[in-house]
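Re: that backbone. Tokens:
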């Protein structure tokens, strides 16, 4: 049986269904994620072929850099996706999934950019920029 995870934005106008296993949650502390969410971003990812997104009329994409874009609901403002322009996978915010998610934390990335108002003390691996297994930014 194929694993199926569903989720949505706060107002429900953008919904998604992911099929198959999800990567563990990466906590991103980069300045863009902190500014967009007000804290750090918690996200997993799934292959482009393994996710169906509904609600294109409400989904807004913002080109946050020359290599990636961020997807959010234009109605309620929920942060939903991060998409590298050259990869066939999409990051999905962990909090947008319906429960139970069965997700677990995997690592912290961009800890060199983390906010000065909190500590990271959960024992997960920490990387100054991206981890070896997560392609985020061009080096």
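Recovered sequence:
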């Amino acid at each position: 049986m194929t694993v199926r995870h569903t989720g949505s934005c706060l107002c429900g106008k953008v919904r998604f269904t992911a099929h198959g296993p999800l990567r563990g949650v990466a906590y991103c502390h980069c300045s863009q994620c902190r500014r967009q969410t007000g804290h750090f971003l918690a996200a997993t990812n799934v292959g482009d072929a393994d996710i169906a997104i509904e609600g294109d009329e409400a989904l807004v994409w913002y080109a946050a850099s020359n290599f990636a874009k961020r997807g959010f609901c234009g109605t309620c403002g929920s942060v939903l996706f991060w998409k590298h322009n050259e990869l066939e996978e999409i990051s999905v915010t962990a909090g947008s999934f319906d429960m139970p998610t069965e997700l677990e934390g995997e690592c912290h990335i961009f800890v060199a950019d983390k906010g000065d108002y909190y500590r990271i003390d959960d024992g997960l691996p920490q990387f100054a920029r991206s981890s070896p297994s997560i392609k985020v930014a061009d080096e």
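The chain is about 5% helix and 35% strand. Residues 27 and 106 are 8 Å apart (CA to CA).
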